[in-house]
């Protein structure tokens, strides 16, 4: 099932997407419930749908428009990216080795989230090294603490796409990555979410293009730490909540991996493709001073 969070008029709705028909059928949810986006579907039977609307008549919102708490993220979780990042000089964890022995966990604040089509806003007075990172994100459906890896996928509601936009100079300046990862607009999310059954974690392609040029192309089967391992690691002492979002890491091909680095500039368009979910595309804008 492919689901959209969207706004029509002044009202947010959640609906079932029919990609072939180019339409979205709103679920029969209250306005209060729909404000949470796809989280409104967690822990309940799938509601009935109302008359479909053309997708080009609605404004897509992020599937989880405002996460209830920080987005959990995993760093250096593809072998090729782990090596390119360690070579970059911006990796504060490089002393422990290029490939981590345990998942590297950091977070992004909820205010970073923007929707497909909204601008990534860069501030040259704050950072001169803004990068892109295409990632598959997990949406938790059933919370829990001490979740075993063998049971972890039972706690997943579904998946979406995120762009873990990063200020590399800030990431290198501070031992913790929060500031470099949490600038306003630095987490484009969407365009849709899919339920757990709609995506094969063992064989899903992730691609990222900047201005039409292919920069990243990999497959979820190349994750160093798979989704069950990530969930087991996070929930060992932290109670996961329904609606939590976990970004699983990015493959090689980010801007920092080029010589010289190829950072984002005003006017660039970043396009991330994960087949079952769709295409997340955002243009870069510079904040006027």
From TrEMBL:
<keyword id="KW-0378">Hydrolase</keyword>
<dbReference type="GO" id="GO:0016853">
    <property type="term" value="F:isomerase activity"/>
</dbReference>
<dbReference type="InterPro" id="IPR011234">
    <property type="entry name" value="Fumarylacetoacetase-like_C"/>
</dbReference>
<dbReference type="Pfam" id="PF01557">
    <property type="entry name" value="FAA_hydrolase"/>
</dbReference>
<keyword id="KW-0479">Metal-binding</keyword>
<comment type="similarity">
    <text>Belongs to the FAH family.</text>
</comment>
<feature type="domain" description="Fumarylacetoacetase-like C-terminal">
    <location>
        <begin position="71"/>
        <end position="284"/>
    </location>
</feature>
<dbReference type="GO" id="GO:0018773">
    <property type="term" value="F:acetylpyruvate hydrolase activity"/>
</dbReference>
<dbReference type="InterPro" id="IPR036663">
    <property type="entry name" value="Fumarylacetoacetase_C_sf"/>
</dbReference>
<dbReference type="GO" id="GO:0019752">
    <property type="term" value="P:carboxylic acid metabolic process"/>
</dbReference>
<dbReference type="GO" id="GO:0046872">
    <property type="term" value="F:metal ion binding"/>
</dbReference>
<protein>
    <submittedName>
        <fullName>Fumarylacetoacetate hydrolase</fullName>
    </submittedName>
</protein>
């Amino acid at each position: 099932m492919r689901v959209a969070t969207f706004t029509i008029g002044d009202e947010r709705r959640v609906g079932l997407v029919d990609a072939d028909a180019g339409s979205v059928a709103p679920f029969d949810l209250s306005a209060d419930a729909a404000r949470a986006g796809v989280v409104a579907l967690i822990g309940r039977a799938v509601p009935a749908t109302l008359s479909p609307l053309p997708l080009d008549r609605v404004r897509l919102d992020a599937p989880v428009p405002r996460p209830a708490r920080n987005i959990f993220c995993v760093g250096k979780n593809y072998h090729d990216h782990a090596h390119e990042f360690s070579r970059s000089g911006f990796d504060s964890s490089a002393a422990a080795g290029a490939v981590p022995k345990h998942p590297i966990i950091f977070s992004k604040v909820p205010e970073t989230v923007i929707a497909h089509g909204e601008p990534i806003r860069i501030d040259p007075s704050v950072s001169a090294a803004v990068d892109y990172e295409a990632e598959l994100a997990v949406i938790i459906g059933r919370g829990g603490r001490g979740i075993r890896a063998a049971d972890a996928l039972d706690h997943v509601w579904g998946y979406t796409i995120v762009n873990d936009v990063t200020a590399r100079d800030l990431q290198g300046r501070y031992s913790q990555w929060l500031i470099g990862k949490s600038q306003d607009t630095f987490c484009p999310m969407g365009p849709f979410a899919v339920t757990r059954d709609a995506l094969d974690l063992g064989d899903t392609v992730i691609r990222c293009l900047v201005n039409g040029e292919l920069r990243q192309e990999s497959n979820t089967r190349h994750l160093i730490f798979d989704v069950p391992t990530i969930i087991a690691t996070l929930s060992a002492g932290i109670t996961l909540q329904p609606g939590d979002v976990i970004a699983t890491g990015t493959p090689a091909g980010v801007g920092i991996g080029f010589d010289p680095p190829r950072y984002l500039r005003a006017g660039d368009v970043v396009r991330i493709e994960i087949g079952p979910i769709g295409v997340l595309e955002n243009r870069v804008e510079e904040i006027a001073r």
